[in-house]
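Hi F.,

I've been meaning to write this up properly since the lab meeting, where we talked about keeping a consistent format for the predictions we share between groups. The idea is simple: the sequence comes first, exactly as it goes in, then the structure tokens exactly as they come out, then a line or two of notes. No screenshots and no reformatting. I'm using this chain as the first example so we have something concrete to point to.
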Amino acid sequence: MSETAVATLIDGDVSAFTYGCDYNPEQWSAETWLEDARLMTDAGVTLVALNIFGWAQLEPVRGHYDFSALDAVIEILHEHGIGINLGTATASPPPWFSSDYPESLPMMADGTRRAFGGRQAFCPSSPAYREHALALVEKVAERYGAHPAVRLWHVSNEIGCHNAHCYCDTSAAAFREWLRARYESVDAVNDAWGTSFWSQRYASWEHIQTPRLTVSTGNPGQALDFMRFSSDELLAHFRAEKAVLQRHSAAPVTTNFMVTAHIRNQDYWSWAPHMDVIANDHYLDHRLGDARSELSFAADATRGLAGGRPWMLMEQATSAVNWQPLNLAKAPGQMIRNTLSHVARGADGISFFQWRASLAGSEKFHSAMLPHAGTDSSVWREVVELGRILEKLAEVTGSVVAAEVAMVFDWQAWWATDLDSHPSAEVRYLPQVHAVYNALLAAGVTVDIVAPGAPVDAYKLVIVPSLYSVTDAAARVLADYVAAGGHAVVTFFSGVVDEHDRVRPGGYPGAFRELLGVTSEEFVPVPRSAVLSLSDGQNAGLWSERLRLDGAEAVSTFTNGPVPGVPAVTRNTSGDGVAWYLATALDEPSLRATLVRAAAEAGVEVPVERDAGVEIVRRVGASGSWVFIINHTDAAFEYQTQGTEIITGAELGIRASATNEISKDGTLDVPAGGVRVVRESRTKK
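Output, unedited:
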């Protein structure tokens, strides 16, 4: 869709954020529905996700439908001017379905089935599920497809969150059909998977099963293809539901992605082209070392899926969640900071799970816009305040984020990197991606997240963290970019295998060896506790290599550890550009310094030193530019600029009326924990 696709969900207004929530009216009385609509209006809510888990209410008995309650709720919301993001209700089948079709329940890798009682209790390949789910979608679309309140369609919910991988016989048959389409012959499958090893060679399609648990390590090629199949199988069902909806409605169709640290089941690069609006769910994960930085990464990655255009935050929490070992409540002001971090990084739609906190069920202690404490609560007051802030920031919608640096990220590489039997179990894909991203974030460098092989000519610097698996075509894109004058940084354990998880012979880093001007004979990982010292005073750990220079220069060498004197960081001139290789895991200060050096050499505008807890992100549009300054620290921060601060109305570097806050020298004070958004008087490129 266009850059203003999210904004136009509200009465065609291209200058308004969507602001809303999941709403589960089936948990409440009809009297409460009226009160909720009134309070939603007070809070500034404009879009409500409805009927997400409504299958058991709409079809309580097989083949018998009851839309009376949903009709009533839709009319109440419509009368209050609230748009609807209408769910297809297919996320969780009702009890009768699992009872009538027990074979549809998902099977785990150990061969056991999971019982009804949670959610997503179905096999994605189940013909019975597909039949009954599409029948329900047909009924919903027929009834509400032309309703003026329906602004967006919401297929299922968090697809693949719990049941992405089913190992049953039905899934095995579907897996074989997927393999037939991909490889055409059993011999081609054998070649891709390397089945000559351990006497695994297949003579017939019927012998191929899902990769259930084995007495030893399994076949990595099979495991990788099964993950691809599973992602494609779920996407096929999304597309089937979308096709039904489009027969009855012109409203855009989407589903909520889970671009987050703890979910990796779908290859969202392959999903994104099928979405009319890119939407994501994100919750702070306090099991990580730095939950705030992961939020920024997830927002940038979601923007990447949207092709740089505005996107929608479909779910977040006003405060605590219910599913972590320790569910931390957000501090005062944190919810607004978190939300505006998403907005700064391209979100034009903001929603929460959920509207009113549940009184029963497993999510009853999950926070909500309207908490158990009601409207006399700090959470509610912050919800209302956020609504007012988004109204003030309406002019930002439709603009895009300015970035000079791209970082390559890939779900399929994530799957391949995290398979077993690798040089070090300590090396996992996402931590290496996060390390690079966090170093750039701390340096104040805004990053676009791109897929392997995506065009990168518009960027001054491209960074490739630990891309263990990569196609020849994607590797050529990077090589051509550098040859034409671009700058790139590639980190260790990259380019090692092809898309089938087959090692490229001739030495590491495989696909990037010529570009980087180095050859590694052998990986030499070290224990996590080991500290590797480098000749330039930097420190590293986790990884080293027996690396030789084949045209590159050594920026630094190891001075201790298993390979003293061997290059650790290299720099190579390739064509008209430059390619760096980091053959070790630099510690945070060293990684930041190295990336800043590479960025400055590439001509990237590197911001002045600031506390790593201060985010500064710029969005640009046809009418100007807006800079977001988000202060996550406990100290005030001063920022030099000219323009109008939109939230407070302060004029910066410009004489204004006496009623306005004036700073003639252009100094903006951003209080501890505060957010400021400046409409700049000078457009920044």
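Notes:
The domain at 614-680 is CATH 2.60.40.1180 (Immunoglobulin-like).
The chain has 17 helices and 30 strands.

If this format works for you, I'll send the rest the same way.

G.
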